[in-house]
Every structure is written in structure tokens, then in C-alpha cells.
Model the fold of this input.
Amino acid sequence: MEWDGDLVRQRWLAGIGLGGEGRESGLLETLNNAHEIRQLDLPVPTMLPAVLRQVLLPVVCDALGVPRSRKEWAQRFGQGGFSCEEKEKLADYLGPRYGDRFRLFSERPFAQVAGLSALSGETKTSALLVPSAASGNNVPLFSALSEADHLDLTPAQAVLWLLHAHCWDTAAIKTGAVGDGQAKNGKTTGNPTGPLGQLGVVIPTGRTLYETLLLNTPILYDGLGPVDRPQWAWDERPTSSGAKSPAGPEWSTRPASGLLDLLTFQSRRIRLIPTETEQGPRVRQVVVCGGDRLTATPDQELHTAWNHTAKPKAGQPARRPRRHTSGRTAWQGLNALLALSVPVEGDGPYTSLLLRQISDLHAEKYLSAGFALGVETCGLEYGNQSAVVENAIADTLPLPVAALLADNDWLRTPVLECVEQADRVARALDGLQSDLRRACGGDPLPRDKGERPSLLLLHAVDDKMRRLLAGLRTIGDDDELLERAQEAWEITLHRAARRQADMLLAAVPPRAVIGRTEKVNGKEIVFRSGKATGAFHARLGEILTRVSEVAAVRGGTA
Done:
């Protein structure tokens, strides 16, 4: 079928079926068959929140309404898929009501501004939408394209990167658009990143796309607000005078008017320019300008954990979105994901709204402890005033629902203990490395340089931690099984730590046995390999209390 830009019926969303087969469908078919799709199959992990927020969730929430109680949410979740009545509502919503607004190339193109023009009259290559392609200041080291090359995007690819740009686009200088009062000398300055660029995104996932949609749907006891509209129905939002808002672009710095507005927030003004080729329409040129600016990340933001500050500075909020750290796996951040309440004293993390909601649903028996809950985390790291993308962060994690019970530490405390043990053992290994370097006559490695044994250790036990978390989802309330799981984890961690320690010792020269004396904080301290090794093993014994020294030695030589 020739692509005419109809996102409702033409195929552009790829997914993986329950049997592992690939499938591609339009928006309506994807929703109708969400119970048969395990997950979306997207080019990059950061595209999942873009597709969920910019299209799937707002369509479902606006067409069917949001659940107004936990019981209503559970009733929908228990269906396993959209009912016949709900499918009719979705078909009406994506047909007679708004179907013409889900066309990529039309008089009112989806998520774009018809006729958008730069003050200079110029257009840019479509690589501007793709962070991994060279464009302007954003020049990835190993990009196969230069800015002079054409990047031909199929319409299916173009709509995905269009949604991605609205969520993740870089900050700073943007092309000035005709009609934008903030444009000066052909450009606008001070543009923030896309809304998700300021978050460490956390997405709960289920066994099917339908479950994932419900897990990402908030329960709003008062329903959607009267002025809350998605971007494709922005002209229906009444202004303060009672008149309807214009459908054309209006540049403003403002808070989100509600859930739908937040999910579909248009942080950029974009126009895709199609070119006819022998292979069909391709997007080769685009216009990307600054859009609306979100005044602050609202408390009703669904997809981020928070950092709580007990005594914020004047003019600063008490809560700020928590961003992911490059080089750390998702399970190393479980202390934030499982922090179900605001710290009573001092600063600390606070988990996402959706994970708190899942905790409440489990507490009221609407979601079983054995449910196969997953979490996907992603984020971008920006550099040079957030004008370029330096790194992408993404991870997936099985998460025991029982660990999310706010009033029950039975499972959460052991899970966090396992994470803390890994962190402490990793630090002990780095300490051993520093002591051995001193014993050899060298200096400890600077914090930001060199290869550290802690990273090798955490990589070695990574798959074991994921298996542990997956197993804890079905452990029930068996104390003996939980204790055995913790013992197995300590043995695994001890073996991996000894292996790394042995490699460190094998690399030191013989003079490390004699060592040297060095002044540290005004005191003379003798550093020798034997002393460093003994201190390391003593530290292991303090951390891994369930593993006896004899059993640990036997396990390490097995």
C-alpha cells in the first residue's frame, strides 16, 4: 500500500508478538491487538516513552477516560485487553472524531505545524531529528554520515523520530520561526531540552503491551481536567475569555494544563518536508524550531523518580526529577525505585508516581505479588550547554511487586541489602587496588581515570542480580526461601570478589611484599600486599555475614 501518511491505518508501529514473531501495524490495529503484543520493537530505548506519551497513552486516556478508582483500574487490567465497547470508542476517536488529525502529510499534519518556515527561509537535513546522526553541533564520533549527507527517512521512521524530538531534543539555539516573537536575528536562545531530557525516565512494563498501557495509566479520582486536551485537539481548549484556542502555533512558557497536555507537550515546532523518490515518499528536509517551554516538571509527572531536599534554597522546589547516572545499572538504583515515601528527615530519593500507584494496588490485593512486573529506565546525557548528546542510558529490570509494599519491609529490606552489599564489596575492591598500588610505590587511581575492579565485579554479578530479582517475584512469603536466596547471593558476590582480588594480586610485582611506608593524614602507614589482602578479606567478612570463611574459601576454589 502506498504511504499517504495515515497513522491510524497504515503500518508504522513495529512490535513483537507473544510467540516472538515480528509484526507491524497502524495505530488502531496496535491498540486493538495490544493484548497479543509483548512489546514494541523500536529503534532505540528512548523511543518507548516518546511513543507511549505522545500517542498511545493520550489516545487511550482521552478516548476511554482515565480510571477514577483502583477498583476501576483493576477491572480494566483484569480484562487482559480492550473490550468490544472500548474498541468501538477507539475506532470512533481515531475515525470520525480525530482521524484526519493523525496524518503525517496533510493540511494539519500530526505533531507538526503546517507551513512552518524559518525566518531565513532555509530547511535542515532530517538528521536533525536523529541524535546518532551528524547535524550542526551534534557530531557523534562514529557517525556514518556527515552534515552534508542526505538522510532519507521513510514516513514510518520519520514519525518515530518526530515524536522522539518532541521529548528529547537538545537545548540552546534553535532556528527562529516566522511568527515567533522570541526569535531574534533568525534564531531563538535559551531553549531547554525536550521535557524527558530533564528526567531519568522510569517505565513500568507488563507481559503485554495492554498491561504496559494500564501500568502507565494514572488513577485520577476527579478524571481529566476540563481544559486538558492533547496536542491534536488543542483548538478545543477554552481560553480565559471562554473562546476556543487557535489551532496555529502560539509560543509560550507555561505549566502543563493537565495529564494529556503534559504527555503531548509540544516543546518544538516541527515540519517534515516529504520528497517523492522511486521508493515512495521520503523525509529528507525538516524545519525544527523552539516550541512551548515547560515552566517546571509538575508533581503529576508519571515517569520519573525524585530527589527530595529537606531544606531547599530560596526559589528552588523541594523535589526535583532524579536523573540516571552513566555506568550504573538500574538495580544499583533500587534504593530510589523502592523509596515509597518522602524522607521524614534529611534529603533522599522518592520513587515515581506510577510505582507508588502499583504499590497501592498491590496493598489492596488488586495486583498479585507474583505479577511479572518489569521496569525500563532510559535517559540521555547532554554536553556543552545541553546542545549535544553525549551518551544514552537504558536498562531493563525485573521488579518484585511485593518489594513495593509501603508498610511491609519483609522483601524490600533484603533486596536493598543485596544491592548495598554489592556496592560495599565493589568499594572494598577499589580500596584493595589503591593499597596495592601504594605498596608498589605508586599512587591510587584518580576517581575519574583508569579501569577499576569494582566495575568488573558489578559486571560479573549483573546477570545473577537480575535472576535473583526475577526469582523473588514468585517467592511468596517463604522466609526460608528468602534466606537461602540471600545466602546464594552472598556466595556469588564473594566468589566474584575473590576472583577480582586474585587478578589484582597476580599483577603486582614482588616488591609489594616488602611494601613501603607513606604518610597519610600526618601518620606513617606501611602498605604491603599481605596487609592489604588481609584487610580486604576482613572487610568481606564484615559485609557478607552469611558466608562463613571456610565455606567462602571452598566456594571460591570450586
Notes: The chain has a mean pLDDT of 88. The two ends are 61 Å apart (CA to CA).
